[in-house]
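Render this sequence as a predicted structure.
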Amino acid sequence: MHLSLIGFMGSGKSTVGQAMATRLGRPFLDTDAEVERMLGMPIPQVFSELGEPAFREAEQDALSDALRPNEPIVLATGGGTPCADGAMEWMRRKSLVVALAPPLEVLLLRLESSLDTRPMLKGKTGQALAQHVQRMMLTRAACYGQADVTWTQGEWTDALLNDALAQVRWRLEGR
């Protein structure tokens, strides 16, 4: 069974995903990287040249393709990926879905250091960024709440990663 990581941008999906893939001996795939590969340009350029609808369509194609094979992988999704129509049902059918939900202050610190690569946050800083992020998180809460498991760590150590994996490993092998 695949392991799919969901959560708001900056929640650590790619970092935790790579660490879990190494621990499980599985390939790691990131839907954002797949979208960039498919469209031949970085995501900010996709948003500016093709628009968000083209990005969302490519994102769903990447999700569908990633979870189709039987060889288990670890997948990190974009923040909005699981919230598209039918996406969470597909993910839950094909994988164990883990939501990453670090504390808001941790999330904001991470986002502030990477605003250039996040088109959905363009032009937002300080209090405006915090309000925008909180609003977006509210709109996605029901979607993220459908995950099989939620991990709330802000920072990950090797011990925390090992403990988190120990809690779900049986589900990855048993479904």
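Summary. The longest helix spans residues 126-144. The chain has eight helices and five strands.
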